[in-house]
Amino acid sequence: MTRDTITKGRLPNAPASVYYIPDFISSEEEQNLINKVLSAPKPKWVHLKNRRLQNWGGVVVNNAMVAEPLPPWLTSFNPRFRELEVFEGLDPIHKDPNHCLINEYLPGQGILPHKDGPAYHPTVATVSLSSHCVLEFFKFSDLSEDRKNQEPEFSILVQPRSLLVLKEDVYNHYMHGIREVHSDNLTEGNILNLDRAFPPNNPAPISPLQRDTRISLTFRIVPKTIRGNRFLAPPKK
Ligand SMILES: O=C(O)CCC(=O)C(=O)O
């Protein structure tokens, strides 16, 4: 993969900037990553109402993170992120992501439209495992009270093994969310990347796409980090 790969992955019909790269990882890598996620110690999972998640790199509190190193199976993406310049120029100190939130969604689960908080540099790189989802985007001012049922301005079909990168305007001025449904009708929601997701020799299915359990690895840079021992009392003299 080269810098050209990400340039070609940019969706010209989306607001600046959405990059979508299908088959970013191989099926073998995908399976290894699924095994790593599922073999994490039980307390690593945080159970929410509509999904469960793992936090790697440290917990973000008040826009800062008590940092701990990411494990090798998550830093293994760094050479590819550097080659594609995904996090290039964002931070003078952190050249690679230092935080990864892993989400697991069962069919019928999702995430309400939201904006990633100010604790992060405005770039998120998502590697998807096991199943697809449709990520929906809403302009801030468009958002009604009924966040669950609002029609998106546009959507992206996020396939397993793909890389999705959100930056700039789309990161700063749009909310994103995943509807809590068991299947996705690809003719709805103004999906902007169907031509990338389904090349001519593999056309998009007409019937709704059934969801399976999906795992997403969302990589970000938290610029403000605190070393863990900062909270420890100084040694007695
Ligand atoms: O699972 C995804 O692809 C989206 C996750 C997300 O929106 C988030 O972690 O803020």
UniProtKB/TrEMBL annotation:
<keyword id="KW-0223">Dioxygenase</keyword>
<dbReference type="GO" id="GO:0046872">
    <property type="term" value="F:metal ion binding"/>
</dbReference>
<keyword id="KW-0479">Metal-binding</keyword>
<keyword id="KW-0408">Iron</keyword>
<dbReference type="InterPro" id="IPR037151">
    <property type="entry name" value="AlkB-like_sf"/>
</dbReference>
<protein>
    <submittedName>
        <fullName>Alkylated DNA repair protein alkB homolog 6</fullName>
    </submittedName>
</protein>
<keyword id="KW-0560">Oxidoreductase</keyword>
<dbReference type="InterPro" id="IPR027450">
    <property type="entry name" value="AlkB-like"/>
</dbReference>
<keyword id="KW-0539">Nucleus</keyword>
<dbReference type="GO" id="GO:0051213">
    <property type="term" value="F:dioxygenase activity"/>
</dbReference>
<dbReference type="Pfam" id="PF13532">
    <property type="entry name" value="2OG-FeII_Oxy_2"/>
</dbReference>
<comment type="similarity">
    <text>Belongs to the alkB family.</text>
</comment>
<dbReference type="InterPro" id="IPR032862">
    <property type="entry name" value="ALKBH6"/>
</dbReference>
<dbReference type="InterPro" id="IPR005123">
    <property type="entry name" value="Oxoglu/Fe-dep_dioxygenase_dom"/>
</dbReference>
<dbReference type="GO" id="GO:0005634">
    <property type="term" value="C:nucleus"/>
</dbReference>
<feature type="domain" description="Fe2OG dioxygenase">
    <location>
        <begin position="96"/>
        <end position="223"/>
    </location>
</feature>
